[in-house]
C-alpha cells in the first residue's frame, strides 16, 4: 500500500506500545514513531486520543486508532496480505480474542501490583501473577506459539510483558523460570524473531525505569 | 452435541446482548438459565477461567465474553451484519464497545453508592456519561443511522440505568446534563429491536427494589 502515512505515538517501556511495534514489523509496514513524554503529553496525542489520552495510538492517514488490541486487529485487517496474526477459523479467532482480553484484564494489574506494593498485598499479587502464567501455559499447550506454528495475535499481545519480567522478579523475589519454565521457553522462542527482538527494550533498562517510578511514588 | 446453546441469565445485560445478536441472525438456540448461586457443571466446564455467563456453545464448543461471542456470531452466521465492514469503522465500533464495558463498573458503583463516597462516585459516572453524550452529538445511534454493535453493547446504559435509578432514587442521567445521550436513549427504548430484546422492565424494577431493601436492612 504505497503513500500510506503511518504514525505510532508510543512510549518505550510500554508493553502495549510493543504490541503495535511487533505487528507493524511483522507486516513490514513503514511508520514514523513518535516518543511521548507522559508527564507532558503532546497536543497530537491529546487530539488523537481525547477519551483516554493514552499511548499507544496508531495514526493511519491522519485517522487515529486507540487501544492496542483494537489497533493490532486493525493492522491485521488492513495489511492482510502478509503475516496473518488472527487465525482464519472463526472459533480459533474467538479463542484468540478471548485470551487477548484475559491478558488485558488480569495480567497487567497483577504484574503492576508486584512492584507497587509490599508485604501481604505483594505476596497476593505474586500468587495471582504466577496463576495467570499457568493459565496461559495451559492455553498454549504443546504448540510452539499461541498462534500455532507462527507468531499470532495472542503472542503479540503477550510477549511485551516479558521485557518487564526482570523487574517483576527483582521486586517480587521469584524466578519465572522456576515457576513456569514452559512460559519462559515460549518467550525465548518469540524473542528469536526479529520483529519481537527489535520491539522490546532491554530488561535492565526496564528495571532502571521501574526503580525511578518507585522513587517517584515513594515505594521503598 | 450440535446446535446452539446459550448459558445465560434473563436479567443480565451481557446475556441479553448475545441473545440480541442471535436474533439478528435468526439463529435458533436453546437458552439455559443459570443460577449463579449454584452454577451448572456445564458452565464450570465451559468457562473454567471466569466461571461466568454468558457462554455460547456452538456444536459443543464454548465461547465466553459477550463481545467476543457477538463477533463470533457475526462471522459464523448468515444475516444482517452486526459490525461494520470497513476496518476503520470496525476499530471505532470496538473502541466504544470496550469503553462501555470498562466504564460500566463506575456507573454501577454510583447508582449504589451511599454517604460520603457518593459525590465522588457520581462525579466519575458523570464523566463517563459526558463522553458518551459527546460521541452521540451528531448521530442518531452509536452505529449511525441504524442500531449497530455499539448500541447492542450499550444495553446496560440504555435500558438498565433508568430502572436502577428508579429503584434507588439516585439520579445520574438528566437531559440538562446529557441532552444527546437522552435523545439517543429515547429513540433506543422505542426501537422494536430493543423492545424485543430486553427483559421485562417490571421484573427488573421489582428485582432492584428488593436489592435496595436488602441493602437498607443491613449486611446479611
From TrEMBL, chain A:
Catalytic activity line of the entry: RX + glutathione = an S-substituted glutathione + a halide anion + H(+)
Keyword Hydrolase: no
Record keywords: Transferase
Domain of life: Eukaryota
Protein EC: 2.5.1.18
The UniProt record lists the keyword Calcium: no
Domain GST N-terminal: residue ranges: 4-83
Residues covered by the GST C-terminal domain: 89-219
One GO MF term attached to the UniProt entry: glutathione transferase activity
GO cellular component: cytoplasm
Endpoints of the signal sequence: none
BP-aspect Gene Ontology terms: glutathione metabolic process
Family membership: Belongs to the GST superfamily.
Protein name per Swiss-Prot or TrEMBL: glutathione transferase
From TrEMBL, chain B:
Family matches, as InterPro entries: Glutathione-S-Trfase_C-like, Glutathione-S-Trfase_C_sf, Glutathione_S-Trfase, Glutathione_S-Trfase_N, GST_C, GST_C_Tau, Omega/Tau-like, Thioredoxin-like_sf
UniProt KW keywords: Transferase
Pfam families noted in UniProt: GST_C, GST_N
Gene Ontology molecular-function annotations: glutathione transferase activity
Residues of the GST C-terminal domain: 86-207
UniProt EC number: 2.5.1.18
Catalytic activities: RX + glutathione = an S-substituted glutathione + a halide anion + H(+)
Key word Transferase present: yes
SUPFAM superfamilies registered for this protein in UniProt: GST C-terminal domain-like (SSF47616), Thioredoxin-like (SSF52833)
Entry GO CC: cytoplasm
Transmembrane segments: none
Domain (GST N-terminal): residue spans on this chain: 2-81
Protein name: Probable glutathione S-transferase
Record organism: Capsicum annuum
Lineage: Eukaryota, Viridiplantae, Streptophyta, Embryophyta, Tracheophyta
Amino acid at each position: 500500500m504505497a503513500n500510506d502515512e503511518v504514525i505510532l505515538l508510543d512510549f518505550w517501556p510500554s508493553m502495549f506500545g510493543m504490541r503495535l511495534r511487533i505487528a507493524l514489523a511483522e507486516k513490514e509496514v513503514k511508520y514514523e514513531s513518535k516518543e511521548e513524554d507522559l508527564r507532558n503529553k503532546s497536543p497530537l496525542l491529546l487530539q488523537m486520543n481525547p477519551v483516554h489520552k493514552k499511548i499507544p495510538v496508531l495514526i493511519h492517514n491522519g485517522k487515529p486508532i486507540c487501544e492496542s488490541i483494537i489497533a493490532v486487529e486493525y493492522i491485521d485487517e488492513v495489511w492482510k496480505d502478509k503475516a496473518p496474526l488472527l487465525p482464519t477459523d472463526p472459533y480459533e479467532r474467538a479463542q484468540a480474542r478471548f485470551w487477548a482480553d484475559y491478558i488485558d484484564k488480569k495480567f497487567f494489574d497483577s504484574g503492576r501490583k508486584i512492584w507497587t506494593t509490599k508485604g501481604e498485598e505483594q505476596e497476593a499479587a505474586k500468587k495471582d501473577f504466577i496463576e495467570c502464567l499457568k493459565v496461559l501455559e495451559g492455553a498454549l499447550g504443546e504448540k510452539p506459539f499461541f498462534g500455532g506454528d507462527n507468531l499470532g495475535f495472542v503472542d503479540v499481545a503477550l510477549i511485551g510483558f516479558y521485557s518487564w519480567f526482570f523487574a517483576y522478579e527483582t521486586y517480587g523475589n521469584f524466578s519465572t523460570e522456576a515457576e513456569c519454565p514452559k512460559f519462559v521457553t515460549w518467550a525465548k522462542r518469540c524473542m528469536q524473531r526479529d520483529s519481537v527482538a527489535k520491539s522490546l527494550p532491554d530488561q535492565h533498562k526496564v528495571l532502571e525505569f521501574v526503580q525511578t517510578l518507585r522513587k517517584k511514588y515513594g515505594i521503598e | 452435541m450440535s446446535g446452539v446453546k446459550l448459558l445465560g441469565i434473563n436479567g443480565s445485560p451481557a446475556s441479553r446482548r448475545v441473545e440480541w445478536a442471535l436474533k439478528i441472525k435468526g439463529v435458533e438456540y436453546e437458552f439455559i438459565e443459570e443460577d449463579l448461586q449454584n452454577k451448572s457443571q456445564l458452565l464450570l466446564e465451559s468457562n473454567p477461567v471466569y466461571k461466568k455467563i454468558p457462554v455460547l456453545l456452538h456444536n459443543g464448543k464454548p465461547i465466553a465474553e459477550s463481545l467476543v461471542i457477538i463477533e463470533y456470531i457475526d462471522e459464523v452466521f448468515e444475516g444482517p451484519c452486526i459490525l461494520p465492514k470497513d476496518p476503520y469503522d470496525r476499530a471505532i465500533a470496538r473502541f466504544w464497545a470496550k469503553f462501555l464495558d470498562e466504564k460500566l463498573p463506575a456507573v454501577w458503583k454510583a447508582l449504589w453508592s451511599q454517604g460520603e463516597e457518593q459525590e465522588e462516585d457520581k462525579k466519575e459516572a458523570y464523566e463517563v456519561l459526558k463522553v458518551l453524550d459527546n460521541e452521540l452529538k451528531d448521530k442518531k445511534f452509536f452505529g449511525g443511522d441504524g442500531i449497530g454493535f455499539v448500541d447492542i453493547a450499550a444495553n446496560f446504559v440504555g435500558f438498565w440505568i433508568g430502572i436502577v435509578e428508579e429503584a434507588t432514587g439516585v439520579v445520574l442521567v438528566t437531559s440538562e446534563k446529557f441532552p444527546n445521550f437522552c435523545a439517543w436513549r429515547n429513540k433506543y427504548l422505542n426501537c422494536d429491536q430493543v423492545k424485543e430484546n430486553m427483559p421485562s422492565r417490571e421484573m427488573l424494577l421489582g428485582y432492584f427494589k428488593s436489592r435496595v431493601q436488602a441493602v437498607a436492612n443491613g449486611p446479611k
